[in-house]
Amino acid sequence: MSGTVVTRFAPSPTGFLHIGGARTALFNWLYARGRGGKFLLRIEDTDRERSTPEATDAILQGMAWLGLDHDGDIVSQFENADRHAEVALQLLAEGKAYKCFATQEEIAAFREQARAEGKSTLYRSPWRDADASTHPDAPYVVRIKAPQDGQTIIKDEVQGDVTIKNDQLDDMILLRSDGTPVYMLAVVVDDHDMGVTHVIRGDDHLNNAARQMLVYNAMGWDVPVWAHIPLIFGPDGKKLSKRHGATGAQEYQAMGYPAAGMRNYLARLGWSHGDDEFFTDAQAKEWFDLPGIGKAPARFDFKKLENICGQHIAVADDAALLQEIEAYLHVKGEKSLNDVKSVLLRDAMYCLKDRAKTFGELLVKAEFVLADRPLVPDEKAAKNLDSVSRGILNELTPQLQNASWSREGLEAVTNAFAEAKEIKFGKMAGPLRAALAGRAVTPSVFDMMLVLGRDETIARLNDAAEET
Description:
The protein is 47% helix and 10% strand. With 468 residues, the protein is mostly helical. The chain has four domains: 6-72 and 232-305, 3-Layer(aba) Sandwich (Rossmann fold), CATH 3.40.50.620; 78-186, Alpha-Beta Complex (Glutamyl-tRNA Synthetase, domain 3), CATH 3.90.800; 316-359, no CATH class; 379-466, Arc Repressor Mutant, subunit A, CATH 1.10.10.
C-alpha cells in the first residue's frame, strides 16, 4: 500500500471523550501528522437511541482541548446508511451474500440444542445455497458467504499475525430484516470510502477485523493496515473506570492539566521511544510509529502525569500559558481575568511556572497578583504579622521607597537593613510574604516586588504595617 497515509478516529456519541478514546485519537493523529497524511473524524451514530448531539459536542470539545485537529468534514455513519445497504445488495447480486429466512426462534433453538449436545453453537444457515425458487415470501436478513475452510490471518502491526480458522467464522449478517445495515458492514464501507489506509484502534476490536475482512475480500478492496492497541488499566491492573478517578478527557482540563502535558503523557501510555519520557509535539510526530506500541495494557499513573505536566508548564510560552489558564477558568465556571490581572499574571509567569504541576497550583502561587488590596492574610501568614514584624515593615518601607527597583537594588536595601538591625533575612521574609501576598508560601519576595512594581509594593507594605 502506497500513497498518502489516512487514519481515522471513529467514536460513538454516547458520552464524553473517554481517556482511552483520547489516546486512540492521539495515536491516529500522530501517525498521520508525522507522515504528512490525513487524520479524519467519523461519528459512529448508528445507535439512534443512545447517540446524542450533546455527546458529539463533548467529544469535539475534548479533541479541541487536546489540540487534535482533523482534516475535512466530520462524517456521520448514520447518514451513509443507504451506501452501506448498496454494498450489501451488490454482494447479494454477485452471489457473495444470500438471503437467510431463518427466524430468531429457529436460531435460538439450534443453539440451545447444540449447547445441550456439547457441540459448536456457530449457526450455519440452511439458506446459504438454497435455490431462489424455494424462497418464501417472508422477512429475511442478508448474510455474507464466509469461507468455510482454511484460515484468515490478521496481520497486525501491534499484535503480530493473528490466525483465525475459517470454520470459526459465521456468515455475518450485513442487512437486518428491516433492511438496515449492521455496524460491521458500515465500518468497512466507511473506512473504504474515506480512503483509510491504517486502522489504529483498541484491541477489543481485534476479533472484528477477521469478520470485517470478509467484506473487504468479497468487494475486492484493499485491506487496511491493522494496529490494535491494548486498553488502559488503572494503577490496580484493572480496566480504567470511574473508581480510579477521572475517565473523561475534559475532566483533566478541569483538573488543571495542560494539553501539551496530557498529549505527552497519553502518547507515552503504551508507546515508547527509548527511555524518553518528556518530549514535544514535534518530537512525538517524528518518533511515533506502530512497532513502538507494547502488547500489554498500559497503567495510568497520576504521579507520572503530574510530573510530565509540570515539565510542560515550566517550558511553555507565557502567552500560550495565559490563554490556556483562561480556558481552564472558563471550564471551572470561574470568572475571567481582567486586563490588568492578565498582564500581571503574564509578567509573573517566570516565577510561577517552576514546580507547578497544574494550573490550580500555579494560580495558588499567583495569589499575590490576583488578590486586591486590602489583602486579607490567611491563618499562616497572619502569624507572621505580629507587632514586632509590623515594626520591622514600618522601618523598612521608607528605605524601599527610595531603592533602585531592580533585584540587585532591592536585595541591597533589605540586606543592609537586616545587617543594621542584626536580624537574619529569614526573619523579614515571613512578614514580607504576608504583606505582599497574604500567604506564607509564595514566590520570592523580590520577584513579587518586581512584578507588582514600586507603588503597589509600598502600598501593600503600608497596609500591613498599619493594621492593628
